Amino acid sequence: MTYKLTSLWRSAFVEPRSDSNGSEQRLLADCYDAMRERAAVLVSRIKADLPHMTIHDVTHLDALWEMASIASGEGCSLNPAEAFVFGGAILLHDAAMTLAAYPGGLSELKQQTEWQDLYARYSGSIATEDREGILKAEGRATEDAIRFLHAKQAENLPHISWL
After folding, report:
1. In angstroms, rounded to a whole number, what is the distance separating the alpha carbons of residues 10 and 1?
2. How far apart are CA 10 and CA 21, in angstroms?
3. How far apart are CA 39 and CA 151, in angstroms?
4. What is the pLDDT of residues 33-71, one digit of tens each?
């Protein structure tokens, strides 16, 4: 878990701080790890839903800690609460780039105006009896709608239950 070696992680959750104690640091770090495990399940599905995307699995999310540590420099320090919020934003944003982020699956996605508009665009010149063309238009609309809507859907993820 290389993200735990980054300067941002270490300064927030490992090194002693004057603004929090070790038990508070461990609690937030453990909560982040639990959220990361759940997000890893969602992001593992991105490859199947968006096969043409670059790698967006949990290793991609972990690497963002390193990129942020490099970009912010050694002088930047987040307190544990700030680091938890930062990490949560990383986990949630890309976790919605899969059909699995929609508890209702494809039928829920198809209810979105964006999906309907994309499908209308892609299927507009296809004859209704061209089943293969219709399926291609549906697939393309689904992939593009997932990409276009992932930031918006990420806002909903903390409130969704898949039980």
Report:
1. 12
2. 14
3. 14
4. 999 999 999 999 999 999 888 888 899 999 999 999 999
